[in-house]
Design brief:
Blueprint (H helix, E strand, L loop, with lengths): L1 E3 L4 E5 L6 H5 L7 E3 H9 L8 H17 L4 E4 L5 H14 L3 E5 L4 H7 L2 H26 L6 E4 L5 E3 L8 H7 L4 E5 L6 H13 L2 E5 L10 H13 L3 E3 L3 H14 L9 H11 L3 H17 L3 E4 L2 E4 L17 H9 L19 H4 L6 E4 L10 E4 L5 E4 L11 E8 L2 E9 L1
Parallel strand pairs: 1-7, 2-4, 2-5, 3-4, 5-6, 8-9, 9-10, 12-13, 13-15
Antiparallel strand pairs: 8-16, 11-12, 14-15, 16-17
Helix pairs in contact: 2-3, 3-4, 8-9, 9-12
C-alpha cells in the first residue's frame, strides 16, 4: 500500500461525483485546496463557470505557498486535462516534493446513488462529458504523466501519513505499527552514524525520536538534514528543535534580506558554507525541506511518562501540548538552564546548571541532548523529587560518538532496554 508523505503534492483526479470529496476527507482540512470552495470564496457562487481560469491560478498560487511552507497539499478538482495537472506538477518540481495522482472514479450507478436529488437532475450531461474526458486522458493519467506516483482507487487503497502532536502520542505511534521508540542524541552532521542509527531502528521496528542539533560541526550537515527530513515526512520519526536548528533558521531568514546580524561559530559555518555552495535551485529546494522539517518539529514531545526536549525541562512542560514553547520554557528547551549571575566561561558560553533535574516530578523522565556530560555513555541523573534526566549527547561531531536508546512499549510503560553507539 502506498503511503502519502507529510510533505507532498496530491492531485485528486476524476469526474464530478466520483468520490474526490470523500477521499479528500481522509486528509486534514487545512491541507485540501478545493476548486469549488475557492470559487465560492472568490465569487460567492459555486456555479460561476466563467471564473475557472482565475480559480485555477489561485489554486496554483496557494499550492506553491503551502509547499514552500513545508505542508502537504491536496488539490480537490476534476484535474482531467493534462494542462491543469502540469501546472501543479511544475510547482512541485520547483520545491522538490513527491507527486501523487489519486484516481477517483466510482461507477455511474454508485455516483448517482450517493448524490443529492438536485444534483442527479442536472448531472447526466456533465457526467457523460467528464467520463469521456477521463477516458480520453486515462492513459496519460495512469502513467502519472511521467512524473507522478499513481494510486488508482478502483483497485487499490492508500495510507495518509498523519501529522502527530502531543495528544495521545504513544497510542498514535502504536497505531502506526511500531513496538517502541529509539531516541537519538545530537547528530551534528555525522552522516554515517546517523544512517546506522536509522537502519538499527528500521530493523527493530522502532520509531525515531531525534533530540535536535542535526547539523553543524560535522562534515555532512545537508545530508543529515535530508535523512532526518525523509524519516519524519514518511511517518517513521519526529524531531526536536535544537539551538543549532534555530540559529541556522534565523541565518537563512536574515540572508534573504541581506541583513545577517548573527555571530556564527565555526560549527555553524560548516553548515552555512555548505548552503552557500549550492546552486540557486538546489538551495531553494533544501531550504524548503529544512522549513518543512522545522514545521513538523517541536520544542518538546511527550510520550507517556517521558518528556523529550533538547536542552532542559520544567515540570509545567508535561502539561503543555502546543507545538511551540515561549518565554522561559522556550529558553530552557533550546539552551538548557544557565546561571545568569555567573561570568561567561572562557569559551564565551554561559555557565550551565542542573537544578532543573531536581524539579522533575516523581515517576517522570526527561531525555535531552545539547550538553555533553559523558562521551562514553549517556549520563543518567536522579533528581531530588524522584524524577530522572537522561543526557543523550555523547559528542557526535565533536570527537565523541552518536548514541541512541531503545525504548519499548510494555503496557502503559516505556521501558529502556539498551543504549547503543553508532
Amino acid at each position: 500500500m502506498k503511503k502519502i508523505p507529510l510533505h507532498s503534492l496530491v492531485v485528486l483526479i476524476g469526474p464530478a461525483g466520483g468520490g474526490k470529496t470523500t477521499l479528500a476527507k481522509r486528509f486534514a482540512d487545512y491541507e485540501v485546496l478545493s476548486y469549488d470552495e475557492i470559487r465560492y470564496e472568490l465569487t460567492g457562487d459555486y456555479q460561476q463557470n466563467d471564473s475557472g481560469n482565475i480559480v485555477s491560478r489561485e489554486i496554483n498560487r496557494r499550492a506553491q505557498l503551502k509547499l514552500e511552507l513545508g505542508q502537504r497539499v491536496v488539490v480537490d478538482s476534476i484535474n482531467l486535462r493534462k494542462k491543469d495537472r502540469i501546472g501543479l506538477t511544475e510547482i512541485a518540481f520547483k520545491t522538490g516534493v513527491p507527486i501523487f495522482y489519486i484516481i477517483c472514479n466510482l461507477d455511474e450507478k454508485t455516483k448517482l446513488k450517493n448524490a443529492s436529488s438536485s444534483w442527479r437532475e442536472r448531472a447526466s450531461d456533465a457526467i457523460l462529458k467528464q467520463e469521456v474526458l477521463f477516458k480520453t486522458n486515462e492513459r496519460d493519467i495512469l502513467r502519472g504523466d511521467g512524473v507522478a506516483n499513481v494510486i488508482d482507487t478502483r483497485n487499490e487503497d492508500f495510507l495518509v501519513i498523519p501529522k502527530l502532536n502531543n495528544h495521545a502520542l504513544k497510542e498514535n505511534i502504536q497505531k502506526l505499527g511500531f513496538r517502541g521508540i529509539m531516541v537519538i542524541g545530537d547528530v551534528h552532521a555525522m552522516i554515517e552514524p546517523l544512517k546506522a542509527a536509522i537502519e538499527w531502528a528500521t530493523h527493530r521496528n522502532l520509531f525515531c525520536v531525534f533530540l535536535g542539533d542535526i547539523l553543524d560541526y560535522g562534515p555532512n550537515p545537508i545530508e543529515c538534514v535530508d535523512h532526518v527530513y525523509s524519516t519524519v515526512v514518511r511517518g517513521r520519526g519526529i524531531c526536536l528543535i535544537g539551538n543549532h536548528e534555530r540559529k541556522i533558521e534565523r541565518w537563512i531568514e536574515q540572508v534573504k534580506y541581506n541583513n545577517v546580524r548573527l555571530r556564527l561559530s565555526e560549527g555553524n559555518r560548516v553548515t552555512t558554507r555548505a548552503i552557500e555552495a549550492m546552486a540557486f535551485d538546489v538551495r531553494k529546494k533544501f531550504e524548503t525541506r529544512y522549513r518543512a522539517l522545522l514545521g513538523l518539529s517541536r520544542h518538546h514531545w511527550i510520550i507517556g511518562n517521558t518528556l523529550f526536549t533538547h536542552g532542559a525541562a520544567e515540570p509545567e512542560m508535561f502539561d503543555i501540548h502546543s507545538a511551540r514553547l515561549f518565554g522561559r520554557f522556550e529558553t530552557m528547551a533550546l539552551f538548557g538552564e544557565v546561571d545568569d549571575s555567573a561570568a561567561p566561561r572562557s569559551d564565551g558560553y554561559p555557565t550551565r546548571i542542573y537544578e532543573w533535574v531536581n524539579r522533575i516530578p516523581d515517576g517522570k523522565r526527561v531525555m535531552v541532548g545539547h550538553d555533553i556530560r559523558s562521551t562514553i555513555k549517556p549520563l543518567v541523573v536522579s533528581g531530588d523529587n524522584g524524577g530522572e534526566a537522561y543526557f543523550m549527547d555523547t559528542g557526535s561531531g565533536k570527537g565523541g560518538r552518536l548514541t541512541s536508546a531503545d525504548i519499548l512499549f510494555e503496557g502503559d510503560d516505556l521501558v529502556i532496554k539498551n543504549f547503543k553507539h553508532h
